[in-house]
Specification:
elongated; 7% strand; 3-stranded parallel beta sheet; binds tryptophan; Tyrosyl-Transfer RNA Synthetase; 14 helices; Rossmann fold; binds adenosine-5'-diphosphate
Length: 321
């Protein structure tokens, strides 16, 4: 059975770009293999230095992912820091990782280019990520384009370890889904938390409506025909609505007499309805933190049982007895 592994950083608030780009494919992957899915809180520590905030984000992320469809009975679902073996494995991997390999990684290079002095955690971020992947002998790692390089680095590290000490790790393959376009934000640029242009999955009704009504449009008057493919409203709408509804909106754009304001209202209604069942599930979970804690514990136990097998072998190979 294919072992698919996915990690998601607990960022505080998830937006609909995160949902389409990573969460929905992750949820769907539960149908085709054994999903190992975790909240990468240790990775967030490279940039977040507020303990209480970190702790809140981690619990929120557990709840969010369960609400959005991760099934803890079918999948192995855990909080990264609940499996301390990952930190131990990171240390062994550090010693077969060339500094030059990490110097070529985008996140570090970008920080350098911006004149931000990177901490060592950020520099060695890809090694921790390699440990996440290799600890569970993952076959497939679905990632966005931005993370592809990290999976390639993981393969390099795994090969180096395997040739230095003996076969310990499965080589993972990245899986980039090309068809999922980048979702634009309300300003038309890539939707991203760092640009403040997001439509959040679990935002309040009023602020979500306001956000959608603020989508930037051109000054074409209501009566005139409009090009749906040039509009952010339609770009988002068509990714969530069924094909018939999307075609109908495109038709009305082209016909004229249909204003951007109307299209925004329609987009809001559609998105609000789309996420309604998820919101309900989320509020049930948030009101039942004991249950969430139990799931977290069970997930960690399952993950540690798998990790133990890899670690036994690795410790033997490196001579830590
Ligand atoms: P942000 O840019 O908001 O900080 P992240 O970089 O944390 O988002 O992204 C987490 C995941 O969500 C990534 O793997 C990426 O594939 C997906 N993602 C983020 N933004 C978008 C977007 N605008 N369109 C599609 N997928 C996205
Ligand atoms: N680095 C990933 C991100 O920023 C999160 C992550 C951590 C991850 N460990 C992973 C993703 C292992 C896939 C596999 O989005």
């Amino acid at each position: 059975m294919l072992r698919i592994l996915s990690g998601i950083k607990p960022s505080g608030t998830l937006h609909i770009g995160n949902y389409l780009g990573m969460i929905r494919p992750m949820v769907e992957s539960q149908e085709r293999g054994e999903l190992f899915c975790f909240i990468a809180n240790l990775h967030s520590l490279t940039t977040l230095f507020d303990g209480p905030q970190m702790a809140r984000n981690s619990v929120d992320a557990l709840i969010d992912m369960m609400a959005l469809g991760i099934d803890p009975d079918r999948s192995v679902f855990w909080l990264q820091s609940d499996v301390p073996e990952v930190a131990e494995l990171t240390w062994y991997l550090n010693n077969v990782t060339a500094v030059g390999l990490l110097e070529r990684c985008h996140a570090y290079k970008d920080a350098q280019a911006k004149g931000i002095s990177a901490n060592h955690g950020l520099f060695s971020y890809p090694v921790l990520m390699a440990a996440d992947i290799l600890l569970f002998q993952s076959n497939i790692v679905p990632v966005g384009k931005d993370q592809k390089q990290h999976v390639e680095v993981t393969r390099d590290i795994a090969m180096k370890f395997n040739t230095t000490y003996g076969e310990a790790f499965t080589l993972p393959d990245p899986e980039i889904s090309e068809e999922i376009a980048l979702i634009p934000g309300v300003d038309g640029q890539k939707m991203s938390k760092s640009y403040g242009n997001t439509i959040d999955i679990f935002g309040e009704e009023k602020s979500t409506r306001k956000k959608i009504m603020s989508i930037v449009t051109d000054p074409t008057p209501v009566e005139s025909p409009k090009d749906p493919d040039a509009s952010t409203i339609y770009a988002i709408y068509r990714l969530f609505a069924d094909a018939g509804k999307a075609a109908s909106m495109a038709e009305r754009f082209r016909a004229g007499g249909y204003g951007y304001g109307d299209a925004k209202k329609e987009l809001f209604e559609m998105l609000w309805a789309y996420f309604e069942p998820f919101r309900q599930k989320r509020s049930e979970l948030a009101a039942n933190l004991d249950y969430v804690g139990e799931i977290r514990k069970k997930g960690a136990d399952k993950a540690r049982a798998v990790a133990a097998v890899t670690m036994k072998k690795v410790r033997e190979l490196v001579g830590v007895i």
